[in-house]
Specification:
single chain; alpha/beta; Gyrase A, domain 2; Rossmann fold; 3 domains; seven-stranded mixed β-sheet; binds guanosine-5'-diphosphate
Length: 458
C-alpha cells in the first residue's frame, strides 16, 4: 500500500457548472478536514456520504469556497484507499485555490493516471481493465464506449484468465509426466498436448479476429473523400457531419496542426482525412499529384469516391477508378436529381454492385443506402462479437500474437516428438505472454508508460 496522499482536479479545465477535486490516500480525510468546515468533522462521518460546507484558509480562517464533499473510505473506493471528492464551483480560479490549499496541507499533486494506477497496484482492477479506463475517456462513439465499459468491467480479463487456467492445467499434466516417465505415456502425452494447444489457439484466434473491428471502433475507420471539383464532396461532408455532430480534435505539435474530424454512421466512427483541405479548396483531384494527398489516400481504410452523375466519366476519373480497383471504395454517384449522363456499368464492374451508391446530396436522397454500404464494409464477412469483447489495444494484440506463436511452436514440437520438458517451455511462455495482458509480471517502466497516457485527475 502506498502511503502518501495525492490530489488533483478531476474535471476538465475551463468554465463549468461544477469542478471536482479528488484526494486519495491514508491522509485523504485528515488533509480535507484541515480545510473543511461543515456540520461535522469528516473524520466522524460515515463512509459514502456527502457533506455541505466551506473550504477555509486554515491560517486566516477566511472562507474560500462553498463545497460539497464526498467521503469514501477504502477499500470501497476507486483506488481502494480513502478517497475524498470535493465539488466546488466551476472555473479555473476557485478549483485551483482549493487544490493549492490541499497541496499546502499535506497532499501531493497526483501524476497523470495515478488514481487509476493505484486502483491497479492495490489490486482493485487488472492492467487490461485500467487500460480500458483510458479507452472509456477517449471513446468517440456509443459502441466504442460500451466496449470499453465491458473491458473495464473485466470481460477480456475473464477470457484471458480462463485461457491461462487451462494452460496451467496442461503444464501440471506435463509436469507429472516429467516426474514419472513411464513407457507408453509419451505417445499419449503428445496427443494430449496437441489437443490442448489447438483448443487454446482457437480461442486466441477468436480474440484476434475481433482486433480489426476493435481497432476501427476505437480509432475510427480512416476515410478519405475524393473526387474532382464540384461533384459534391463538401456537400457529402456536411451531410455526414449533420447526421451526427462531428467531433473535431486538434492535435498540436505536428509540423502542421492536423484536424481530425469524426462522424458516425450507424454507430461506426469514421475518421475523415484532410477535411480542411476539402472545405477550403474542393480540389482534391488536382492536388492528387501532391505527395501529401497521396499519403492520405494510401492511409485510408475507406475511400468515398464521389462522381457527378449528370456528367459522363472523364479520363482522369477512369484513371482513378483503375488505380483504386483493389481498395475499399464506395463510389458515390451524386446529383441523381439531374438528368443522368454517367454510365454506372463501369463503376459497378470496378467496385461491385453494393459499392455503388446513387445519391442526391441536394435532396438528401440515398443516405441510408450509403450507410448500408459502409456497414457492409465494416462487418464484411464477420459477425459482430455479440458479447462485446473486442481486442483493440495494440499491446494486447501483440501479446496475443506472441502467445499464438508460442503455442504453435508447442504444437509442432509435440508433433515432432520433441522432449516434453522442451515443449513445457513454449507453453510457459504463452502463459506468461497472456499474463502480461492483465498485468501479471509486467515491468515498472511499462506500467509507468501505460499510466502516463491518462489525463490528470484520473
Ligand atoms: P465539391 O467541390 O466536390 O466539394 O462539391 P460541392 O459539395 O461544393 O458541390 C458543388 C456544387 O454542386 C454546389 O453548388 C452544390 O450545391 C451542388 N450539388 C451538390 N450535390 C448536389 C446534388 O445532389 N444535386 C444537385 N443538383 N446539385 C448538387
Amino acid at each position: 500500500m502506498m502511503q502518501d496522499t495525492i490530489a488533483a482536479i478531476a474535471t476538465p479545465s475551463g468554465e463549468g457548472g461544477i469542478a471536482v477535486i479528488r484526494v486519495s490516500g491514508d491522509e485523504a480525510v485528515a488533509v480535507s478536514d484541515r480545510l473543511f468546515s461543515g456540520k461535522s468533522r469528516l473524520e466522524n462521518v460515515p463512509t459514502h456520504t456527502v457533506h455541505y460546507g466551506f473550504i477555509r484558509e486554515p491560517r486566516t480562517g477566511i472562507r474560500m469556497e462553498e463545497v460539497l464533499v464526498t467521503v469514501m473510505r477504502g477499500p470501497r473506493s476507486f483506488t481502494k484507499e480513502d478517497v475524498v471528492e470535493i465539488s466546488c464551483h466551476g472555473g479555473f480560479v476557485s478549483v485551483r485555490k482549493v487544490l493549492d490549499l490541499l497541496l499546502e496541507n499535506g497532499a501531493r499533486l497526483a501524476e497523470p493516471g495515478e488514481f487509476t494506477k493505484r486502483a491497479y497496484l492495490n489490486g482493485r482492477i487488472d492492467l487490461s481493465q485500467a487500460e480500458a479506463v483510458i479507452d472509456l475517456i477517449r471513446a468517440k462513439s456509443d459502441r466504442a464506449f460500451r466496449i470499453a465499459m465491458k473491458q473495464s468491467e473485466g470481460s477480456l480479463s475473464k477470457r484471458i484468465a480462463e485461457l491461462r487456467h487451462r494452460l496451467v492445467e496442461l503444464m501440471a499434466h506435463i509436469e507429472v509426466n516429467i516426474d514419472y516417465p513411464e513407457h507408453d505415456v509419451e505417445e499419449l502425452t503428445n496427443s494430449y498436448i496437441k489437443d490442448k494447444c489447438l483448443a487454446a489457439l482457437e480461442d486466441i484466434e477468436r480474440l484476434l479476429a475481433t482486433a480489426e473491428q476493435g481497432k476501427i471502433l476505437r480509432e475510427g475507420l480512416v476515410t478519405a473523400i475524393i473526387g474532382r471539383p464540384n461533384v459534391g464532396k463538401s456537400s457529402l461532408l456536411n451531410t455526414l457531419a449533420q447526421e451526427d455532430r462531428a467531433i473535431v480534435t486538434d492535435i498540436a505539435g505536428t509540423t502542421r496542426d492536423v484536424v481530425e474530424e469524426y462522424v458516425h454512421v450507424n454507430g461506426i466512427p469514421l475518421k475523415l482525412l484532410d477535411t480542411a483541405g476539402i472545405r477550403e479548396t474542393s480540389d482534391v483531384v488536382e492536388k492528387i499529384g501532391v505527395e501529401k494527398s497521396r499519403q492520405a489516400l494510401s492511409d485510408a481504410d475507406l475511400i468515398l469516391l464521389v462522381f457527378n452523375g449528370a456528367e459522363p466519366l472523364l479520363a482522369e476519373e477512369r484513371e482513378m477508378v483503375k488505380e483504386l480497383a483493389d481498395r475499399q471504395v464506395i463510389a458515390i454517384v451524386n446529383k441523381v436529381d439531374l438528368p443522368q449522363q454517367l454510365e454506372l456499368e463501369e463503376l459497378v464492374k470496378a467496385f461491385g454492385e453494393d459499392r455503388v451508391v446513387r445519391m442526391s446530396l441536394l435532396e438528401h436522397e440515398g443516405i441510408s443506402e450509403l450507410e448500408k454500404a459502409i456497414a457492409g464494409i465494416f462487418f464484411s464477412g464477420q459477425v459482430e462479437a455479440n458479447d462485446l469483447t473486442y481486442v483493440s489495444n495494440a499491446r494486447h494484440i501483440h501479446l496475443l500474437k506472441s502467445a499464438k506463436s508460442d503455442l504453435t511452436e508447442a504444437y509442432t514440437a509435440a508433433e515432432g516428438f520433441v522432449p516434453i520438458d522442451m515443449i513445457q517451455i513454449d507453453i510457459r511462455n504463452a502463459w506468461e505472454h497472456l499474463g502480461e495482458i492483465i498485468g501479471d509480471a509486467v515491468s515498472e517502466s511499462l506500467i509507468n508508460q501505460i499510466f502516463s497516457q491518462f489525463c490528470l485527475g484520473k
